[in-house]
# Entry
Amino acid sequence: MDFLIVSLLNGLSYGLLLFMLSSGLTLILGMMGVLNFAHTSFYMLGAYFGYQISRWVGFWPALLIAPLVVGGIGALVERFGLRRMHRYGHVAELLFTFGLAFMIEEIVHLVWGRAPVEYRIPAALDRTLFSLFQFQYSAYRAFMMLVSLVMLAVLYFGLTRSRTGLIIQASLTHPQAVEALGHNVPRTFMLVFGGGSALAGLAGVIGGNAFITEPGMAAAVGSIVFVIVVVGGMGSLYGAFIGSLLIGVLQTFSAASDLSLRKLFELAGMHAALTGPTAELASVKLSQLAPILPYFLLVAMLILRPQGLMGIREEE
Amino acid sequence: MNDITRGRFGTLHLILLFGLVALSLPWFFSQEFILSTLSSMGIAIVFALSYSMLYGQAGMLSFGHAVYSGLGAYSAIHALAAINGGVTFPITLLPLVGGLAGLVFGVLFGYLSTKRAGTPFAMITLGLSELVSAYAYMMPGLFGGELGISANRAAGGLSWGVTYATQAQVYYLIAGWMLMCMLAMYAFFQTPLGTIANALRDNAERLRFVGYDAHTVRFRVHLAASFFAGIAGALSAINYEIVTIDSMGVAASGMVMLMTVIGGAGSFFGPVLGAVIVTLLQTTVSAYTHAWPFYFGLLFLVVIFCAPEGLSSLVRLHQPVWRAKSFARLLPAYAVALVSGLIVLAGIVAAVEAIYRFSDNAAASMLVLFGTVFSPVSAATWIFSGSALALGAALLLASTLYVKSSWKAVLARLEPSNVD
# Structure
């Protein structure tokens, strides 16, 4: 029971972090039709900026400054890069973001080297919040969850209550109509792209020290976030939310369990003589399967419901 | 499209000429280093062309094409290991094993991934690629884990009179298969399916109106592309005698995509050009600097920005000018642009190499650039880099205007009525 609760809490905090990434990605995808390969590169930049700024002036200013810097970079990328590529179509835009992701990774290599950097959790939060039997729940995890929830609330009220939010929502489905009403849709695009990047940057600042800050982190989380967006339904914020929590909890649970096919067989009373490749397959533990479970979910979703959980239209 | 029937010198002639040149190269260059570079090039050409079947012909942007080449390579290396173990099978035909493996996995994974098109297809292929790589790491028996699987191509005895003990023999094998694959892929583009694939790329909705099932067309094109990717994989297995899980990863898929896009997917020889350029960069620039992926990414972004249809589109762009014999009028502007571009590049190279040495904590290591020794921490390096960047950028801006006005003058000569 205690294992369940702690795993659930860890999974939720990870899932909320994933949502900070997938929300921006799915908004950009839904609005601009751009699959932003550089989205998790902004997450990585957030982590590295957070590390660098917290070395200069401390973690708390970094929590504010780094996402703003990343958001500014994102807005510049949209204004001077993506907007130029727009006339060549979505594939050209996608290729541009792919090239950008490649370059950002190389720049990180150049500036901070290939090895992980020592980005530590701030001392004030580096303690146990509470213990359940032998399991301990760290204060930093709770802090991550708090930041994510605050961001979630800001995002929700910003999108549903503010004027800009309403324009964003309208541009999701009817960009031409919104433009005809006199709103500056390209500027809205820049705002969304910058905002999404800032959100990814914030996720980097609070996630980089909880996990690991190294040049491979963008690619590692990138494909997971893509899975979330497909599973949730492309362009759907609610879908991205459910998908993020689902995958966060799924990965955390499976990573902590030691179930294997062999064990399942034995539980079922079958001590079959497994040999060769079957034995290799059967002895794989669920925790080893953890990295590929999201992709299984992706394939299953494609078979059962190709448009995703919350996807409505089947685009071709 | 079909130049043969028109009796003109066209793509088919060019393929045959290209193949002849490729097969005769070992007479001129017998150094091991050059032959192995050429071998990598041949493999990359087959792989990039198979990718352009998907992306160029059918408009399917895949981020998991290396799955099929990688699984083809694994099948071939296991077959080679079996040959080492005493099974009789000609190594010359080993690429066919890889191709068939590509085909089988193309049926298995392709049926699912081709259900969607466009951006969802790109994401699904990415997910499949991650899935296969992660699965492969779980199966060290089949995929060799971190070390990969290796076998010996020379221990199989004579394969139709050839031992494949020297790089030259392997090069001939690769060049031969490359020529056959190029012809087969060109033929595929001429079939009804190839034409329908073009229609799918240009307007999927209308294609459905005409009565074609888009999924079926995508699936079939994807099958053909997987087959040739498998052949490319098997060729690499024979060439390197080792296959690792990295060869199936997203990075490998991204690399073939970059090759195709840099060269240009719009024409048959675009991907060939891209494969040649990228392989050359990989082998030459990486010998000088660890920062070569940076320059590679820079090249990609410059191509995407300046020639989104790839480098081969530049050739097409200049064809009418060349025919009208006005190419010489563009040359002065191009020369100025080239010089200013080189100045910018020098500034970038100086800055990048200095940063690289600085962050690598190797302040002691001196930077030798353009025949001059720079210290990465000295102000001179940064003054040089900064002034080269500023000067080059200003020149580049001016030369853009020059190029534009030269083009305008040439266009006015070509079609006097079309100038605004």
Summary: The radius of gyration of chain B is 24 Å. The beta strands of chain B are 149-150, 242-243, 367-369, 372-374. Chain B touches chain A through 48 residues (CB under 8 Å). Chain B is about 75% helix and 0% strand.
